[in-house]
Amino acid sequence: MRKNAKTIAFHNLGCKVNAYETEIMIQNAQSAGYEIVHFSQISDIYVINTCTVTNIADRKSRQMLHRARKLNPDAVVVAVGCYVQTGGDKLLKDPLVDICIGNNHKGELIQILDDFFKNKKKRAAVVDDLGIPSDYENMTLETLSDRVRTFVKIQDGCNQFCSYCAIPLARGRVRSRAKEDIVAEIQGLIDKGCCEIVLTGIHVGSYGIDLDEKGNTSGDYGGNSRLIDLVEEISQIPGLKRLRLSSVEPRIITDENAKRLSRLPNLCPHFHLSLQSGCDETLKRMNRHYTTDVYYESVLSLRRYFDDPAITTDVIAGFPGETDEEFAVTAEFLKKVAFSDMHIFKFSPRKNTKAAAMTDQISEEVKSSRSDVLLDMALGFAKDYMNRHIGKKTEVLIEEEKTIFGKKYMLGHTPDYILVAIPSCGQEPGEFINVKLTGILTEEIMSAESII
């Protein structure tokens, strides 16, 4: 490792994929000899991995870029990622940003910095036109910042073009990572002591559709088994204790695929099935590629083969054209499914998407009101799910110590992703502890006692 006199600070915004890619950029900077410092410190270089999923994400990205400049007016400020792809023109004209790096060039950060300093450039930009299909940028995580849980990216891009979403514009079309590279990375992380692997991507359920021998890249992949094939192979990696799937397309969860997944002893029974609306008419306007009937069949399949699995989802409140009647239909469908938890978002119009141009936009007042209703429902679902688990025996992977109500606890998650607090008595992060769930400690945490 060469010594580099320069310091570099990173800040991550957005999804699990961004978090994974930021970890790799930090790893590469360390290998190149840069001194990593906290983002709040004075640094020679600031790298902000941006997000553009909502207007709020855009604003936070701009704020962090400008905060970096305030921290050190002489620093090199680097904007990376999704907001670079969708707001690149603004960033290129922003005098507070020195370097713009698109989503398919994050692995080249050190090379770009070297070139910037060597040629004494004032500005630099490396951004692809992601409207044109490109190869998967293979970045490999080799070091662990957290030995408990690590994300591993298996694909990039999305072909779905939901009417509200700018992510295909920021990430491009589906590019799947080679199975051999995924397996090799996971084996290396396990060898370094990682206890739990979370498979992530921009649209995980589309893994492999670009590898189809028939060349089918249309996105019509209901029941796609490429992902299931991959999960089955990963589950066999020696030493893998826990494996999780991040958000998956409900059409992937056919009865046969649910049955296959249930046979994997180290796969955690926690499934995030993105919904967005419980009304078929709204789903059509969203350009989602399933109906509520199809979605519910996926839920039933999971519950048929897993014992009360955690099923979570995302719901958008106040999508354009959503009437009171449509919202009521959504609320009834959510009750029918009875999720273990929900993530609620108010509709945010994104530039260059079809939903932003729809004429029947919903007022902020109505969006907030509907969001409040859904948030209350989410709290109720989570409480019901936790109550059903009181008295059950399970396993917790210890993650951290935390003081709650003046008492020290060790916190960790069960396989079905219930956050559990155990009285602290010498346990260490990375330990697996057998426990009995005893009650609800807070809105988000269950209490438990260790058992032998």
Name its key features.
452 residues; Rossmann fold; pyruvate-formate lyase- activating enzyme; OB fold (Dihydrolipoamide Acetyltransferase, E2P); 3 domains; six-stranded parallel beta sheet; five-stranded mixed barrel; 12 helices
Overall radius of gyration:
22 Å
CATH superfamily heading of the largest domain: tm_1862 like domain
Mean pLDDT: 92
Tell me about the largest β-sheet.
6 strands, parallel
For the record, the CATH architecture of the largest domain stands as Alpha-Beta Horseshoe
Strand order of the largest sheet: 2-1-3-4-5-6
Q: Spans with pLDDT under 50 lasting ≥5 residues?
A: 213-220
Into which percentage range does the β-strand content fall? 15-25%
CATH class of the largest domain: Alpha Beta
What quaternary form is this? Answer: single chain
DSSP helix count? Answer: 12
Q: Provide the structure class.
A: alpha/beta
Short précis:
Helix content is 34%, strand content 23%. With 452 residues, it is of the alpha/beta class.
Description of the molecule:
By secondary structure, this protein is α/β, with parallel strands linked by helices. The chain has three domains: 7-126, 3-Layer(aba) Sandwich (Rossmann fold); 149-388, pyruvate-formate lyase- activating enzyme (Alpha-Beta Horseshoe); 393-450, Beta Barrel (OB fold (Dihydrolipoamide Acetyltransferase, E2P)). The protein is 34% helix and 23% strand. It has twelve helices and 18 strands. Strands 2-1-3-4-5-6 form a six-stranded parallel β-sheet, sandwiched between helices. A five-stranded mixed beta barrel has the order 14-15-16-18-17. α8 packs parallel to α10. It starts with 6 loop residues before the first strand and ends with a strand.
